[in-house]
Design goal:
single chain; 348 residues; mainly alpha; 15 helices; 2 strands; globular
Length: 348
Amino acid sequence: MRENVVEELRHVQSNDATKRKMLDILKRLHSEEEEETMDEDDSGLSEEIIEKILSGGQISLDDLSTEEKKRFQRAVASGELSRMIDPWEPWWLTPSAGKIRLSQDGTQLVQPLAREEESGSSEADTDSSYLSDIPPGPETPLPPLSKLSSTPPSPLLAVHLVDIVYSYCFTVRLYNGDWQSDAVGSSMVILSVSSVLGQSGQPETMLEALSYCLEQTCSPAYRHVGGLKFGMALIDDVVSILSLGTPALICLLSDLQRLVQAGEREMKLEKPKRSRRTEVKNKLKLAERKVYFIMCWVREQPGEAWPALATIVAAEKKAALVHEDSKRVEKNGDKGIIQGKTLIEEVE
């Protein structure tokens, strides 16, 4: 089983044609970002609005005038409001992420203690403190794949996993680590960024999966978040999580399952158009099943599969960056390099 999985992962690499396709997409998206810069005079937020936000705690858009609403929306789009928010440190980048321990059935070996119990033991404080930053694993044992499906799992599940992990990292970073504040919105972001969960996509190569995720990241809906640069950083997040191994992946997928379930519950309380609500609910239900299935699949894979997969993802990113830089130098000729540094490419 171990040799089979590792061998499949080695073959999950793209050919030159698909690689050029992704790089062309990246180049086009980068050019569009440069063209669509905002006017500085239009992005300012009035001092009155800032004062209201800082002093009022919770403010509805209905409390603002028409002009204030426009300025507020421009401030959100330009990122001006980000200076009011404490940056969130992703849990997978903390030292505690390497200390996750799960039982053989996927559940946590150490359960969080009640606060009154924690206060009586310094050792319990230490154990629970490093777990507090990590999403909890499944509450019930994960069944073997043979009980979920009679057919053998697809060898492409490694590619699909990368798509899913990317969409999770995108969403939790977008919500600064607090997806619970808007479960419906978070679940909608997951569906829009992930081809596997949102479009029932079946990407066959790592390049195809990453290309779709990057296209969504650079789309008009999310370009204000950071565009292509942000997308490349998310690929680094994927590499980091894969490098942590099975326990971290299971905790991530368990948190993603809770996110989708919370979105389903809140969706039932809202009253959008009936046809739209039914469509979204069906997508969320299907997404939840896929996340659970791939979580069970992850538990059964050999530990050495994940560093190998992380290497493949990192190689795809590196190849894309190197190719883009070489194309830029080739286009600009000798003028494209000054003291060994590539100039910014002029958009035609």
